[in-house]
Amino acid sequence: MINVQLEADGPITQMDEADLVKSKGSIDNDNEATTWVEYRLASDPNAARAVHRSVHVTLKKQPGVFASGVAASFN
Question: Who contacts 51 (Cβ-Cβ below 8 Å, separation ≥6)?
Fold first, then answer.
């Protein structure tokens, strides 16, 4: 069962994965490794809006902006 939101701003419900079309994608560069999964309704696989989307991002480099901001708050 997959959590889905059939209408924008609608409730989140569950559907059987067999009723959905799954697509995957990824980006891998010097700064990040990102993967995502999207599901669309099998009855409308070309719909512009996915009914489920999940993303996983791994940062490869620690941005200096965040490091200096945290260090400055401890002074």
Answer: 4, 5, 6, 15, 20, 39, 40, 41
Is residue 14 within 8 Å of 2, Cβ to Cβ? Answer: yes
The tokens describing 56, both together, are: 């996983």
Tens of pLDDT along the chain (75 residues) come to 999 999 888 999 999 999 999 999 999 998 889 999 999 999 988 888 899 999 999 988 765 555 554 444 444
Helix (H) or strand (E) holding 58: strand 52-59
Which contiguous run of DSSP H or E holds residue 53?
strand 52-59
Quote the number of domains for the chain.
1
Domain boundaries, position 68: 2-73
